Amino acid sequence: MTDHASEPTPPPHGLPAPAPAGASALPDGTYDGTVVLVTGGGTGLGKAIAAEFARLGADLVIASRKEERLKAARDELAGLGGRVTSVPCDIRDPDRVAEVFDAAQEAYGLPDVLVNNAAANFPVPAEDMSPNAWRSVVDITLSGTFFMTREFGRRHLAAGTPGSVISIGASYAWTGGPGFAHSAAAKAGVKSLVESLAVEWGPYGIQVNGLVPGLMPHEDMTADIRGNLDRATPAQEHASGDRQRELSSRQPALRVGAPRELGWAAAFLASPYARFITGHTLVVDGANWQRRGLVSPEVVTVREQMGRGPFEG
Ligand SMILES: CCC/C=C/C(=O)SCCNC(=O)CCNC(=O)[C@H](O)C(C)(C)COP(=O)([O-])OP(=O)([O-])OC[C@H]1O[C@@H](n2cnc3c(N)ncnc32)[C@H](O)[C@@H]1OP(=O)([O-])[O-]
Ligand SMILES: NC(=O)C1=CN([C@@H]2O[C@H](COP(=O)(O)OP(=O)(O)OC[C@H]3O[C@@H](n4cnc5c(N)ncnc54)[C@H](OP(=O)(O)O)[C@@H]3O)[C@@H](O)[C@H]2O)C=CC1
Q1: What angle do CA 144, 99, 146 make, to 5 degrees?
Q2: What is the 3-state secondary structure of 44-93?
Q3: One domain, residues 226 and 169
Q4: Are residues 107 and 243 in the same domain?
Q5: Longest C-alpha distance within the chain, in Å?
């Protein structure tokens, strides 16, 4: 019998690195002749998702508020193969949402796949949150997602055609999100919508799934979210430019996620290889959301974590 006690313990090395950028698990041309609409497809994770569909042959429509951003992303995504159209739109406005679908239909046809990726978020203690701050986040993240999904569903039901919706969520839909009460409540609503609509629209051939990213840093992160990452890492790590290593050491995977890992999951969920998966929310976060220690960490209030003074009403 081997005496394990005398063997040196190998150091933990975390989850293996992902396949290289540009690789795909799906066959070439999986999305040939398919139209994919991605909200917030001009930045960050939305752009990474759009890129994976484009590599597999999809025609893309990307929609968000800022035209400049959309144009830059459109040029970048067009280099990957398929055709790309961008349509400026605030998803809080159902009339503008209808116009996005009109524009998509005119360009390539009714989108076969809708990725609800656009969302809004910033950390703020609940007691400091203005009614308008609450409304902005809930209106964009939950109502905007519903308006997009509703328009997609209505058009497919009228045409008698199948389709696939993927709504991007967040793990605090299950756990709650101290400091992100508005976003966590909205994402819990998004998860619930996935479950309701998968059943309502299954009979019409429409799949509805959720997809949750873990920590996947990217260059487009807003100052608010970036500031939150800064809070998670000591100042000397920023100074030395080694924040990524510090962030990685705080994940069970011992690495952060790459945005393309979310893109691959989205491309799978909407593909012919996932036709019996609906009403499901897939978490791609290296098990970070299930993390518990043997011992509970000391409680630090959201106010303290954000370096805010006492609440003054
Ligand atoms: C980290 C874990 C997971 C991450 C998940 C993600 O979703 S990452 C994705 C992250 N990506 C994004 O979020 C991308 C899109 N996000 C955005 O464009 C902005 O964050 C937005 C939602 C504020 C814009 O919405 P809009 O054009 O409607 O904005 P507006 O300028 O009119 O402000 C509305 C209200 O909000 C208030 N307020 C704003 N900031 C703060 C703050 N830091 N503190 C307190 N309050 C704040 C502002 O004062 C105003 O209230 P007031 O004063 O009238 O009572
Ligand atoms: N990054 C992360 O660590 C995590 C992200 N997520 C989720 O992943 C998704 C993508 O996040 P990420 O890429 O990091 O964030 P970004 O801030 O890069 O992307 C948000 C996108 O939403 C668009 N958008 C915001 N408001 C509206 C609106 N009213 N109408 C239309 N488009 C809008 C923005 O474009 P524009 O400004 O042009 O309107 C932008 O392209 C979101 O759903 C987010 O909640 C979840 C967990 C963790």
Answers
A1: 20
A2: HHHHHHHHHHHHCCCEEEEEECCHHHHHHHHHHHHCCCCCEEEEECCCCC
A3: no
A4: no
A5: 72
**pTM for the whole structure:** 0.96
Output the CA 299–ligand 2 centroid distance in Å.
30
**Residue 17 forms part of a structural domain:** no
The closest ligand to the CA of 169 turns out to be 2
Query: Nearest 5°: phi and psi at 238?
Result: -65, -45
Specify the residue with its C-alpha closest to ligand 1, atom 40: 122
100 Cβ partners below 8 Å, 6+ apart?
A: 37, 61, 63, 87, 89, 148, 151
What stretch of H or E contains 210?
strand 206-213
Same domain, 238 and 228: yes
Q: Which domain holds residue 225?
A: 218-256
Q: Is residue 300 part of a domain?
A: no
The 10s digit of each residue's pLDDT in 138-183 is 999 999 999 999 999 999 999 999 999 999 999 999 999 999 999 9
Task: Tell me if residue 273 is catalytic.
Answer: no
DSSP character at residue 141: I
Q: Whose CA is nearest to atom 34 of ligand 2?
A: 40
Same domain? For 250 and 268 the reply is: no
Q: What is the ipTM of this complex?
A: 0.98
Q: What is the mean pLDDT of the chain?
A: 95
Same domain flag for 84 and 230:
no
Please state the domain count of the chain: 2
pLDDT at position 114 = 99
| DSSP H or E run through 197 | helix 181-201
Q: Name the packing angle between helices 145-159 and 181-201 (round to 10°).
A: 10
Average pLDDT over residues 85-109: 98
Tell me, yes or no, whether 59 and 183 share the same domain.
yes
